[in-house]
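Hi U.,

Before I forget, here's the chain from the pilot set. I'm dumping it here mostly so it's searchable later in email.
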Amino acid sequence: MSPASTPPAWALESAVARLATIDGVRPHVVPVVFCELDGALVIPIDGKPKSGARLKRLTNIERNPAVAILIDRYSDDWSELRWTRIDGIAEVVATNDGIRDALAAKYPQYAHVEIGTTSIRITIEGVRTWQAKERP
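Structure:
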């Protein structure tokens, strides 16, 4: 495992990650889509149907903004396994045009799915990576 200050390109290009927040007692982990914008990670709260209640991840961030993002690559060839964990401080922000543009550029699905008015912005504090073997 090696410490780094920025996530590797393969991780930023990944389509999905897992966001871990703390509810005061337990970790709460959910899959998310994300993009990099101005050196931070942004996670949308999109317009897909939700349970109707305020999302636990948002409540958790407002109580404790320390979060982790895990991005991994699985392969049946275990010599190709790798992961990146990004630790940071999250804040709930209004979704602006810059966020919409960055997400739409990464995810063509947003041409048909509404990007909501709220997003999560994560200021990166640390990055840890691991891979099964060195890549050229």
